[in-house]
User: Which sequence fits this backbone?
């Protein structure tokens, strides 16, 4: 049996690659074999997975026609805030899967932001044809429920990354002596704003890029700060989690850096105007500062560091999040047994 894994794979993003790292070993305990639509086939194959180019029409048609099921194992691919073409691509894959009568499931998935009412309705119509949809946050669950998604096919789970084991490589700074920084690349104005905000850090800073596009941005900010170091490459998902686990606090704009911090019992300050990050921060009662340029230029650095220095932070939702994360694997197991 063959299952097609669909997501933002092969782009080097820590969060998305983590789903492949988790699912690859399952091939040893099941009769199913994974095939991945990848932006970097060579890198994906290093995980022991078969892969085809994600943007080759011939490869995509052949892959969907010949597999026994299609699995979206996690992420936030159904959004058009960063790219409408990306959303159209994934909706096209859904239509193609339904045309070939292939069963589809979504695991630990986020949806949105979806801009435009017609886009929302179009996306929901396509998603409703899936056998089951596992929403990783309240924002996604409530959005789908509001749009009339069948309740019997909708489950509230959590992100699969809570099940990823960390790898404890030696960080450039001693464990528990640094704040890890994991932000998104941006304009020169954003760079200068973060140089100002982070200049008063009470701890040395370790910049951990979670996406290849963030590496040079992180290096530039680290270069303007007296007590900062920066990784020269994007770490593997396990390494990235280990870096977060060994930190004393996290300043994060990448969602999985916040997941990893919460799992490790490490306090964090989030920056984002993204609903998925806001939803997670609300769920676990941690601060989320706006990341628009006007806010960054006027924010006080004390607001950034105060949550990282406050004692007695509450991590009481961790076991529930891990239980919900494991629900994805139960759903996947049922799907594999029934298909």
Assistant:
């Amino acid at each position: 049996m063959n299952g097609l894994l669909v997501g933002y794979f092969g782009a080097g993003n820590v969060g998305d690659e983590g789903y492949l790292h988790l699912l690859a070993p399952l091939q040893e305990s099941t009769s199913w074999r994974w095939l991945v639509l990848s932006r970097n086939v060579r890198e994906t194959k290093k995980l022991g997975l078969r892969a085809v180019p994600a943007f080759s029409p011939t490869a995509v048609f052949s892959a969907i026609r010949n597999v026994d099921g299609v699995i979206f194992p996690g992420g936030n691919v159904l959004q058009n805030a960063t790219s409408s073409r990306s959303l159209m691509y994934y909706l096209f894959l859904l239509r193609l899967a339904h045309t070939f009568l292939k069963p589809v499931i979504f695991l630990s998935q986020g949806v949105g932001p979806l801009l435009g009412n017609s886009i929302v309705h179009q996306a929901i119509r396509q998603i409703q044809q899936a056998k089951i949809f596992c929403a990783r946050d309240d924002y996604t669950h409530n959005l789908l429920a509001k749009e009339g998604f069948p309740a019997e096919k909708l489950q509230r789970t959590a992100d699969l990354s809570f099940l990823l084991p960390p790898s404890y490589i030696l960080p450039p700074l001693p464990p528990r002596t640094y704040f890890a920084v994991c932000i998104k690349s941006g304009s020169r104005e954003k760079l200068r704003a973060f140089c100002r905000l982070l200049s008063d850090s009470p701890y040395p800073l370790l910049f951990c890029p979670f996406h290849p596009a963030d590496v040079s941005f992180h290096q530039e900010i680290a270069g303007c700060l007296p007590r900062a170091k920066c990784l020269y490459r994007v770490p593997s998902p396990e390494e990235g989690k280990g870096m977060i686990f060994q930190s004393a606090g996290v300043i994060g704009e990448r969602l999985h850096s916040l997941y990893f911090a919460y799992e490790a019992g490490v306090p964090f300050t989030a920056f984002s105007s993204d609903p998925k990050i806001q939803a997670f921060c609300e769920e676990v009662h941690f601060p989320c500062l706006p990341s628009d340029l006007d806010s960054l230029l006027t924010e006080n650095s004390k607001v950034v560091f105060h949550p990282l220095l406050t004692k007695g932070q509450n991590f009481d939702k961790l076991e529930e999040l891990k239980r919900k994360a494991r629900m994805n694997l139960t759903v996947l197991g049922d799907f594999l047994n029934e298909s």
Observations:
- The chain has a mean pLDDT of 94.
- The longest helix spans residues 318-338.
- The longest strand covers residues 104-111.
